[in-house]
Design goal:
By secondary structure, the protein is α+β, with helices and mostly antiparallel strands. It folds into two domains: 1-90, no CATH class; 92-192, no CATH class. Helices cover 26% and strands 38% of the residues. The chain is built from four helices and nine strands, in the order H-H-E-E-E-E-E-E-E-E-E-H-H. The protein has helices at 5-14, 18-29, 163-166, 168-192; strands at 36-45, 50-59, 63-72, 81-90, 96-102, 117-123, 128-134, 148-154, 157-162. Strands 1-2-3-4 form a four-stranded antiparallel β-sheet. It has a three-stranded antiparallel β-sheet with strand order 5-6-9.
């Protein structure tokens, strides 16, 4: 299988190294057909530069493939470089698929009304974020060392798509992707039981 059709169009529409991203996806499809996809482009700005990042979420019949392509600024003598990474996760390893939807004017919701924003959080516990803080006690005069406390939070992938920023078609695509992923994860878990 090779990247074609809607996935290729969406990579090209993102406008960020589409041939590189398509080539990376081709390398890892292993002749599996693409069941569903979602391409998400992000731009981050700081005082010194602009960084672009595209993530292609690709579902096959057996796994979720994530392809990330980032800018890596070179030195003044070098041109811009692109960094591509890929991760594939079998459906039975995915622990969490959270789909959040935001609707305009919910008091007047009607069946079939589309959300204006979609959030998708995926977790398979490959990455965790630690938040640490110094512990203290209730005694304001205490100067003893109470050690540290903290939380460990899974942080695999979060996606947010807004009709106001990316358009309603992008929101619909993200929702379709998330619902398809939820179904594939459900069947993978059921079949594993």
């Amino acid at each position: 299988m090779s990247v074609s059709g809607a996935l290729l169009r969406d990579l090209q529409d993102a406008g960020y190294y589409p041939h590189l991203a398509a080539n990376i996806i081709n390398d890892v499809l292993f002749d599996e057909p693409v069941v569903e996809h979602c391409v998400h482009m992000e731009t981050h700005m700081d005082f010194e530069s602009i960084h672009r990042h595209v993530t292609a979420f690709v579902l096959t019949e057996t796994r979720l493939i994530l392809v990330h392509v980032d800018d890596e600024p070179g030195s003044p003598e070098q041109s811009m470089r692109g960094v591509a990474s890929v991760e594939d996760i079998p459906f039975d390893r995915i622990r969490t698929v959270i789909l959040s939807r935001i609707y305009q004017d919910p008091a007047h919701f009607t069946p079939g009304q589309k959300p204006v924003e979609v959030g998708v959080s995926l977790g398979w516990e490959s990455v965790r974020r630690l938040e640490m803080f110094p512990e203290s006690c209730a005694d304001p005069q205490c100067d003893a060392d109470h050690g540290y406390g903290g939380t460990s939070v899974p942080e695999d992938v979060n996606l947010r798509v807004s009709a106001q920023a990316e358009g309603q078609d992008a929101v619909d695509q993200a929702e379709r992707f998330a619902l398809t992923l939820k179904k594939l994860v459900y069947y993978a878990r059921r079949d594993a039981s």
